[in-house]
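Record 1 of the preview.
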Amino acid sequence: MTPRIAADEAREIQPASTPQERIRNFCIIAHIDHGKSTLADRMLQLTGVVDERAMRAQYLDRMDIERERGITVKSQAVRMPWQVDGTDYALNMIDTPGHVDFTYEVSRSLAACEGAILLVDAAQGIEAQTLANLYLAMEHDLTIVPVLNKIDLPGAEPEKYAAEIGQLVGIDPAEVLRVSGKTGEGVPELLDHVVRTLPEPEGTVDAPCRAMIFDSVYDTYRGVVTYVRVVDGRLGSRERIAMMSTGAQHDLLEIGVISPEPMPTKGLGPGEVGYLITGVKDVRQSKVGDTVTTARKGAPEPLAGYADPKPMVFSGLFPIDGSDYPVLRDALDKLKLNDAALNYEPETSTALGFGFRVGFLGLLHLEIIRERLEREFDLDLISTAPSVVYDVTMEDGTEVEVLNPSDFPAGKVREIREPITRATILAPSEYIGAIMELCQSKRGNLQGMDYLSEDRVELRYTLPLAEIVFDFFDQLKSRTKGYASLDYDVDGDQAADLVKVDMLLQGEAVDAFSAVVHRDKAYHYGVEMAGKLKNLIPRQQFEVPIQAAIGSRIIARENIRAIRKDVLSKCYGGDISRKRKLLEKQKEGKKRMKNIGSVEVPQEAFIAALSSDGGDAGKDGGKKK
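->
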């Protein structure tokens, strides 16, 4: 995934640094599938950092899964030379993810830039994630360069969407640049515009060194490669550096720029973007958002904005073959090296055996991690239905954090609090009624509504995160014929009337099928899951009751009928009492068998019951376009 960094001798050491006034730092922000990576490809070709022979589509997307799905998961930085009016400039570009799950990566990338190219598809217009990223860029006081992409498409409406962008950003629609990432039309003019309009980076060369980490990846041969933006001071090769959040100190083995392959330099000055290699093998020691300084005469204060990414959605991952548990543990350890946002801890389920409770940034993050585990490590996995974190306060005042429905405490509960999101939905105005109906059924509260143009509307709702992580996005797309786009941001928590629904087989709770749901939806969940299990669990020699229960109260029931042998087949005529005697004898045997027998739930039943709840929601999360 990370380009292999060759030995120092094989590469020419570049000059120390570029003058500050000739550096321009910018990133590309957009919704998924609006052409960020394609535009980046054209820039790489135009500036000559990638020759025609080495060029391939989505050059900066290193993972197979990124290339197949056409999405960016990891931010990528690249340095490009560009000449305007005979003066050489260094352009540092960061290609950011467009999906809501990776907003944290986008915010760190924005902190490393002075400007942002706001890219909008000329055939689709502004979508929810575009707006979210635009507001993020405005919060960081970045210079916004609005650009319409894909103007070569037959369905493109540049005039209409230029007016929409102009209204949003507060500029004349004629100032919105028009480019085609596919053909390269308008891209040289865009690079000239970036040089002329973006401010040069601020920073004092004589101040104590401060550099922000905006990304870090693991390289098999060199350990952790840390991507930094130097704000103040200078970082030279072979210096001893310190991480300000942890206090850890390391020797700098190599420093350089990415163009787009790593090129060592003698150092990095204020405003420059590059990479550091210290030989550290644990990516957690290079936390995204942390500040790097020199060990001697270091900076007293770190740069603002450091925070750990918080997992939003939790799901259990269990190997189908129990003997694969050590392989799964090693696989998660290796993925953690490249993804510091991944959190996991061991978990045991009576039904599914040994596995891990894994925290994800969202449903697409869950889907990508699971797919990488199955593909790269050849694992067959079951993932339980995604759930969120609940804060439960008991009658005696004790507080319990519930990551897993099976951890829900027994006893009297005073209050349950669940995470709430601020959701933004953009759609054609004809679908307002369908969207409002869906949001109300998901316990949403309308916060406001604005018309971006005559036929496009922005709806703002507060919605429980638990309602979004199941099938909300899928239903939103189906009710709006695929035209709606969704962005959400977690915004605190609120008390809710929630209950834990247990599924009982022959009176025994099966923890894998437990769920925390709103009281109004508990009956529906119980009936649906009981009906599903009735069809999935094979018939036994005795009758098996499937029950859904809230505490000790049964709210739904299905029966799996017993397999009965025809004990009357040998009775040809004769007295009825003889037949009754045989049936009573069989009935006693079944009763005795039920007392000592246990219900065997096949693995396929778990996969089918859980995937239709959790897996599908995850797949839909990956289609936010």
